[in-house]
Amino acid sequence: MRFLHTADWHLGRVFHARSLLEDQAWVLDQFVALARELRPDAVLIAGDVYDRAVPPPEAVALLDDVLARIVVDAGIPVVMIAGNHDSAQRLGFGARLLTAQGLHVAGITEREATCVTLSDVHGEVRIYALPYAEPAAVRDAFGMELPGHEAALATRLDAIRASHPAHARSVVVAHAFVIGGEASESERPLSVGGSGAVAAGVFEGFDLVALGHLHRPQTFHQRIHYAGSLLKYSLSEVTHAKSVSLIELAADGKVSIEAIPLSPRRDLRVVEGKLADLLAQGAGDAHRDDYVHAVLTDTGALLDPMARLRQAYPNALAIERAVLARTGEAGAAGQRLRQLDTGELFANFFKEVADEELDDDKRRVLDHVLEGIARADRESA
Amino acid sequence: MRPLRLKLQAFGPFAASEEIDFSRLGEQAFFLIHGPTGAGKTTLLDAICFALYGDTSGGERSAQDMRSANADPGLRTEVTFEFTLGGQRYLATRSPAQERPKLRGEGTVKETPKAQLDVMGDAGWTSKASQPNKVDEFVRDLLGFDSSQFRQVIVLPQGRFRELLTADSKSRQAILERLFRTELYRRVEELLKGQAAGIRQEAERLRIEQTALLQQYQLESVDALREQAAGLQAQLAELRQRDVAARAVLEVATLATRQGEQTDARLREQRDTEAAHAALTAQRPEMEAQRERLQAARRAMQVQPFEQHLEQAAQEHQQAQQALAVASARAADCAAVSATAVAGLEAEAARAGERQAVQKQVTELEAMLPQAQRLGVLQQEQHAAARQQAQAAAAHAGAVQAQQQVTAMLRQAEAGLAQAQEGARGMETIQLKQAGLAQQAATLDKYAATLAQCEPARRQAEADQLAAQQAAMRQAASQLGLRETEQAWRAGQAARLAAGLQDGQACAVCGSTAHPQLAKHVDAPVSDEALDLAREAARLADQAAQGAASRAQAALLAATHRQAQLEELREAVGAAGMPDGAALDPVAARQQLAGAIQALCQQQQAAEAAAGRRQALAAEVERQQAALTVAEAAIRAADAAAQEAGQHHAKLQGEWQAASTQVPPDWREPERLTGALAQARRDLAAREAALAAAHAADKQAGVGLAAAMAAQAAAQASLASHAQRQTLAGAAFASALEQAGFVTRQAYAEARMPGALMEQSEAQVNRFDLDLATAGDRRERAAIAARDLAPPDLPALRQSQADAAAALEALVRQQADLHRSRENLLQCQQRLDALASKGADIERSYAVLGRLAEVANGNNPRRMTFQRFVLATLLDEVLEAASLRLMRMSRHRYELQRVRQQGDQRTAGGLDLEVFDHDTGMARPANTLSGGEGFLASLSLALGLADVVQSRAGGIQLDTLFVDEGFGTLDPESLDFAIRTLIDLQQAGRLVGIISHVAELRERIDVRLEIRAGAGGSRAELQLP
């Protein structure tokens, strides 16, 4: 049986005050085409479909379109869960109505997990959709006290194991942070303060675990897999190669994964150099529409560098001045200040504001004043 | 400061009492205060501010107005806030001024604001401050800032978060100064300023002093002073010349006067000497008479020794006459004494017969003495023998009495012994009786035991009998059952056989192959097993019946045996004297017996005691017998001693009588004899001594008489000699008188003069002679000196001298006046000079200090004070930390920086902020930022400030941050960045509480303090993941 596994679409995401919706629509077209071509038995979307709990209408429209094309037009069933960015209730709206159409959405966490049963020539495959849930929500559903994410997820998986028939192969679609996973800046921590991470061991016994949350594609134990995000959503992901995963689940439950790259409409890049050089370079750049983060190495002052950069790179996001970037200079000055005694400090001050060295007479008078203060302090102490 | 617990009571929307336990947050240091508008989110911050400072977080709502409108009138508005700071726990409690119902009666009373701050010590909470203003002050010192600063760095209040960002240098300085404790630098500034001002004042004082000095001398200026001094100098020089001239005039006048005075003196001398000489000359005749008297006295002095000689001789003659009279009287006395002594001697010599008689008496007494002594000894011995005899008689009587006593005691002991033996003999009888009683008691015990056993045995026998009857009945029943069963089994045998028959097969009983009428079971067939069971049951019943019967037999036997035993024992008891037949009560019998036994025991004890005494009494008898023997022996011995003493006494009496015949009765007492003898001897000695004395007196009187006679003769001779010498002396005196020219002794006597008077008179005469000569001499010399001299006009001379002196004096005075004036001026000049030099010193030090003060206090091109300079450096550090965050939150667009160039020279600068916009490459004022950007910048600044303050040793602790709203102004992405920044913060250990009703945040922050508005006031609930 084959699955097309993707996650972390973050539809409606704003990056450096720019909506990425167009770029997302671009990549999702590729995804729909891929689905039509590969015809997997199911498409698995492992959470963070929207970027925010209350997504912009355009994002909702885009998702509606994409799902319709896959489920209705191509007739491929889709299993989709809510991630930590999604609002479980909102995403889960109409889930039971949609099931009949082949769209299986798991939003709110319930005691009995959403299960989609498919069959191939080797037999049954059960797909369990486990939406992201705060431990408090799991506690409410299961009526037991659960300290932390790992315990909550383990409890949910235990419930599934208890009812899973021995002959069927099992697939879990979930949204979690597996310990050892490589994170990037655009992922929102699952727990504020506490640990949101779970050990890979909680997924013991399941043939395939299709995960969302981490934006870099990565695999644990050949069967626990992050498909990664749709696009580069932060500067820390500049080096990532974004993809979707085609997963083959064999008769014996063996898993083989193939990454199928996606090509974005505008890539995210970091360019470095003097402004003039970058402007020249941009003029001849075929990908000048890319999202560009510019690190300017100019030492002098620059007049309106952003406006000028955008002439070369229309989608320049930000400028970083390597020289101006504070290197702890003021902190060092503060440090120095703390080490100087008051007299020296005054001499510095005098030199700085009056451009005059403190001669011996002045120094003597100042020392006398400082001694007076020290004496007064001693006496009052 | 880190909150632990906040309790609100009737405060704002919280009408009831609401307590929030922040300590439940534990490690979760980032939480959202969430709730609908008006539910009281900000009120929580207000409550914290109110508890600490007595005003609210926004500084807009008045603390008095915070009383909940719909609170129960009895519930006081009060806020309690517990927090930790630097490892200490503090508790602030505060209530505003409020109306509360009277405790009694209608109406309300006004309650004054209250505040209390406690600290947790070893012994629980201890108060640190109690009055609202005291608590304010304490909290200010404790936290390090006041309420408005608290709102800028701990609480970012709703709508006012930009305050710190857009504050001017001055107010920013105030907050930085507190946070970084840089007041030292301000003190340096102020001290410099103060000292510079001091120097300026000193200079001013000097100037005033100079003016006053000049005024004092009525001088226009220092130059006028100099001029005046020079004028005075010239005047002085002129006066000095006049002085010299005046002195010369005075000298001449003085000389003239002196000469006049000399002339006058000489003339006066001449007159004086003349007068003196005349006076002396008048005295001369008197002096001559005195001289003659003196010469007569000298002659009389030559006669005087002869007169003295004559007088001495007459006196000696008179003495010789007296001595002769004395010697004659003495001779007469001695003759009388001698006559008396001779008469005494003769009288003593006549007593020779008396002396012999005494001698004889002595001899007789001496001869009688040994006999008398022998008699004394004998008498003493006789007395001793008589006493011995009396003692022996007394001893005999005592011995007899002792014997009688012993005899009596012996009788008593013998009687006691007899009684004791009687008692001992009774003991055997008692023992026999005891044995009998013991046996009787044993029998009775046995009887009682048997009696006790009898009843159970009987009951057992009855029970067993009953059991045996029942067993027999069951046996009969089972036998009957068995019989019926056997009968039924047998009846069924035919049917059983018939069941096995089949047509054609031979019957085992009859062999017939045809079975026309097969037997059938009438009842249910009885199986073999049932039969066996019935048989077994019957057998068991038999066994049981037999067992029961034998047990019943045995029990009956036992009961009978017990009864027989009982009868036997009863007889035995009866035989021992118990009443026969009647119901025998073993207990009463036993008690009676026990009484008898006890009585016997007592008797036995008495008998034993008597037997014990028997031996002692026998010993006593023996002892008394022995004592009787001793007493009898003693009587015998005493008798013998008495007889012996009587014999001895009689013998001594005989001896004494024999001896007494040789001595007259008067002298038989040796003492009397000895006394008489001593008296006689003394008498004899006295008589002999008197004789010897008479002899001696006679001899001495003879010698004395002879000596007196010789002395009388010598005295007569001496008298004659002295008479002759007196006659000679008279003649010599008469011749001397004649020679000296005295006619009569009367004349001589008149001329005589005492020596001292003579000398005085002579000296007087001599001095007169000398005086007269001297006066004559002086008269001559004075006359020579005064020759040709005219008398001078002295008063005129003296007047002219006085005039000259007065003129000079006036000059000198004038000079002194001028000199003094000049001195004064010079002194003034000196003081002015000193002032001028001091002024120069001050000017020099002001040049240094004034410059320092000026620069330190911001009077410099940069318009920056010393403290601002330090603060600016610190602010740079803060801005660097803030910019790191702001860069992230603003997508690398903005940085905060300090305005380096001061635009307005009139105001102090150095702490103004601006933002650097990376997009435009330009800096611009912070207040040009948009709302959201401004919020981010403010947040960054507050965080940066906290970072730097925290990192400074001894700095104020900024480990808590509350952000009240502001998130609504952010776009989703910025919100992400802001939240991320705050999350980073809480990972650094700081408590971050944000207030918002942005739904997005509620989705994202799992630690929430939910505020719910309700009819009875708002409630707060802390929700943990």
Can you offer a commentary on this structure?
The complex is a heterodimer of chains A (381) and B (1025). Chain A has helices at residues 21-38, 57-73, 88-91, 95-99, 135-142, 148-163, 275-283, 305-312, 329-339, 342-354, 360-380, and strands at 2-6, 14-15, 18-19, 42-46, 78-81, 103-106, 114-120, 123-130, 169-175, 177-178, 197-198, 208-212, 218-220, 224-226, 243-249, 255-261, 268-273, 291-296, 316-321. By secondary structure, chain A is α/β, with parallel strands linked by helices. In chain A, the strands form five sheets. In chain A, strands 6-5-4-1-15-16 form a six-stranded mixed β-sheet. Chain A has a six-stranded mixed β-sheet with strand order 7-8-9-12-14-13, with no helix packed on it. In chain A, α1 packs parallel to α2 and α7 packs parallel to α8. The longest helix of chain A is centred in the last third of the chain and has 21 residues, at 360-380. Chain A starts with a strand and ends with a helix. Mean pLDDT of chain B is 83; it is low at 577-582. In chain B, the strands form four sheets. Chain B has a six-stranded antiparallel β-sheet. Chain B has a six-stranded mixed β-sheet with strand order 10-14-15-3-16-17, with helices on both faces. In chain B, a hairpin with a 2-residue loop joins β8 (114-121) and β9. The radius of gyration of chain B is 86 Å and the shape is flat.
